[in-house]
Design a protein that fits this description.
Keywords: Hydrolase, Magnesium, Metal-binding, NAD. Its EC number is 3.6.1.22. InterPro entries: NAD-cap_RNA_hydrolase_NudC, NADH_PPase-like_N, NudC-like_C, NUDIX_hydrolase-like_dom_sf, NUDIX_hydrolase_dom, Znr_NADH_PPase. Belongs to the Nudix hydrolase family. NudC subfamily. The protein has seven helices and 16 strands. It is α+β, with helices and mostly antiparallel strands. It has three domains: about 130 residues, Alpha-Beta Complex (Nucleoside Triphosphate Pyrophosphohydrolase); about 30 residues, no CATH class; about 160 residues, Alpha-Beta Complex (Nucleoside Triphosphate Pyrophosphohydrolase). It starts with about 25 loop residues before the first helix and ends with a helix.
Length: about 325
């Protein structure tokens, strides 16, 4: 049996360089003082933000001055944190496509990108800011009324909490834990599965939400049994990554299973599952990723490897993109000696 493997680097959306400044959120005077010289991350309802691209393909957020939004934070703005004396805020802006069509002030030269597609190519500063902004702004969009009595809520603590206007009940952003597990045979094979809604040839590791009253390890064992009908042992923690689509935390594990077990696929959830050798996985990693929905290739700098190919091109094995923790887990296992 091969030695256990681990993630060599943080998953792409787990990277951040910004101090969240949790200790000052309840100080209205300090929060207000950060606004005049702050930089603002704009996010539209589709989760897109403008980015610039370095020569090596790294993407960076194009933030703007808070002065573009007035003397005080607009309603719904959230304080993302501070870095090198600069405060960063997140603000929801209109849908960029509709705004451009209406000629309402967005620059036609700005390239707006979605976190799910392009997050893996952001630098650590930008990845931390945008992941947090997408998560918080999405929460505000969905949590406008009190869960206890349906009363209107208003944002407090720099956007990190909401207060029920009727009974002063505070609510905070919800995070849904989800396990994601790379199942291998302890030697040179890994178990991959595909959902019926995915593009042809796309496979990934197993994943599922943690249920009420359930431990993470119990969730791993249950989901592997439910999705593909295999029993797993040697469950070990690998790492985690926020996945704000809209509010998940992906908690990564590895586990061992006997490939001689007869698989039973969960109807409607798993279309196919297969054991893949380490060499086959390495070849798929080298082959590259499919084109993004913006029509641009993912960058090779973040583990993609080879040349990207069109979505319609037939491939026997297409792996998750570099933005996901699944990709980091597969790369780590493929690289293990």
């Amino acid at each position: 049996m091969r030695a256990a493997f681990h993630l060599d680097d943080l998953p792409r959306l787990s990277r951040s360089t910004v101090d969240r400044r949790e200790q000052v959120r309840g100080d209205p005077e300090h929060v207000a003082s950060t606004w005049p010289l702050a930089r603002v991350v704009r996010v539209d309802p589709q989760g897109r933000t403008p980015v610039s691209e370095d020569a090596d393909g790294t993407l960076r957020l194009v933030d703007v001055s808070s002065r573009d939004f007035g003397e005080a934070p607009p309603e719904g703005a959230v304080l993302l944190g501070e870095e090198d004396g600069t405060a960063y805020w997140g603000v929801r802006v209109p849908d960029v496509d509709s705004a451009n069509d209406a000629g309402s002030g967005f620059s036609a030269t700005e390239k707006w990108r979605d976190l799910r597609v392009s997050g893996g190519d952001l630098d650590a500063h930008s990845a931390g800011l945008l992941t947090t902004a997408v998560a918080l702004l999405s929460w505000h969009d969905r949590a406008r009324f009190c869960s206890r009595d349906g009363s209107p809520m208003r944002a407090i603590k720099a956007g990190w909490a909401q207060l029920c206007e009727a009974h002063d009940h505070e609510e905070y952003p919800r995070t849904d834990p989800s396990m994601i597990c790379l199942v291998h045979d302890g030697a040179d094979r890994v178990l991959l599965a595909r959902q019926p809604i995915w593009p042809a040839g796309r496979y990934s590791v197993l994943a599922g939400f943690v249920e009420a009253g359930e431990s993470l390890e119990a969730c791993v064992a249950r989901e592997c049994a439910e999705e593909v009908g295999v029993a797993v042992t040697t469950i070990t923690y690998l790492g985690s990554q926020p996945w704000p689509f809209p509010r998940s935390l992906m908690i990564g594990f590895a586990a061992v299973a006997d490939p001689e077990q007869t698989m039973q696929l969960q109807e409607g959830e798993i279309e196919n599952a297969r054991w893949v050798t380490r060499d086959e996985l390495r070849a798929a990693l080298e082959a590259g990723d499919w084109m993004t929905r913006e029509g641009e290739s993912p960058k090779g700098a973040h583990g993609v490897g080879g040349t990207a190919f069109e979505a319609g091109e037939e491939r026997e094995l297409i792996l998750p993109g570099g933005v996901s923790i699944a990709r980091a887990m597969l790369e780590a296992w493929a690289a293990a000696a």
